[in-house]
Amino acid sequence: MNIHSMRLDRPAAGKRHLSVLVIGSTYPRHEDDYAVPWLRESVARLRGRGHAVTVLAPSYEGLRSHTIDGTPVHRFRYAPRSWERLTHEQGAPNRIRKRIYQLLGVPYVAMGIRSAARLAGLLHFDVIHAHWPFPHGPIAAAARYAGGAPVVMNSHGAEFALARRKGWVRPLLRNALAGADRLICNSSHTAAEVKRLSGRDSVVIPYGSTVEARPTPLPRNEVPRILFTGRLIQRKGVEYLLRAMPAILARRPAILQITGSGDQRESLEALATSLDLGGSVEFHGFVSNERLDALYAGCDVYVNPSIVDDRGDTEGLGVGPIEAFAHGRPVVASDVGGIPDVVRHERTGLLVPEKDPEALAGAILRLLDDPDRAGFLARNASAYASEFFDWDRITDRIEDVYRAAIEGSDRGRQAPPRRHDRGVHEAHRHPSHSRD
């Protein structure tokens, strides 16, 4: 996370500061929480340019409103303390497979609507930026109704897999997209999903890496190190990376390092044992940012073996490869979802078919056997990431969408008075919000 060391940009001359309400299902619960680092970074970048940003997110186990990095985070309660686990730990798309969490969706949206309307009526935001149109479409609409601000809806991909599985989600998602003033998507894959469902065009703005760009020469370890980072869930495809290891080890020694946790960790460890991988696989669990940097710096190749899972879900973008690019590491990844927006085959990395251990092994061995080719791809990837996933560029484009939404609404044409950070913080301390 580089939010504390970033350059504090300011809006160009003639551009006024904005008051922004950001709505999301997850936001860091404390300073050391690594949840949605890209959203935390985006908020910090906007604040660094002088915009007043307020976050609205659900509570987690009774968590009250608080402040992160100087940003007021309003938490809305939606269930008894012990039941407030719909978001944060596993993510709502994984949670709602269970009936109890599906039932929690109703009070979640109802209390989100209540809190959004109250907050927007008090602070009169210039623009509302809602992530995940389902379930946050109605919540954003309530904020617009109460305060008059236009809505920018940001899609990340998972909501469309949910709509395919559950027919009742589809019209709600379509309505949320139709009701927004502007649409943002994290990849061309997600933008195509939006177009198919709603008929609307969107602006593709990927979120960047939250690790410092530290490209270093490839280590060329005597025993090569292969790295995977991410949640250990089905759509990450780690099973197929493990199944690729015997073919790799038949050619040369190597160590696969796996970070992260998730509901598949035990089954993946059991699979590694059954494949007799022994010391050639290391499960590191959750690691600190410092340890993650060291793992990136020490690896010879990074692998993202993501798949389309049993529920139709896949990667909306793929943050892991972007982080690997920032460290100057060559990447092998599956050709699914939004990953091809990041990994350009034979230019910034190698793409392989999903669920294909043989293809994974072949691509990994190709890079390990040809350090010059690996270095060429790594250098290209680092330059590509610096240009297309640069946070200054990303923030510029988000600001452009905000201003287009404002100018296209009646509110924008009336040029409402802006609110300053002081007012936002005062509202954060207002007793009427202490329960949210």
Automatic annotation (TrEMBL):
CDD domains: GT4_PimA-like. Residues 416-436 have a biased composition (Basic residues). Its EC number is 2.4.1.345. The keyword Transferase applies. InterPro entries: Glyco_trans_4-like_N, Glycosyltransferase_grp1. Keywords: Glycosyltransferase, Transferase. Residues 42-208 form the Glycosyltransferase subfamily 4-like N-terminal domain. Residues 408-436 are annotated as: Disordered. It comes from the Bacteria. GO terms for molecular function: phosphatidylinositol alpha-mannosyltransferase activity. This is GDP-mannose-dependent alpha-(1-6)-phosphatidylinositol monomannoside mannosyltransferase. It comes from Aquisphaera giovannonii. The gene is pimB_1.
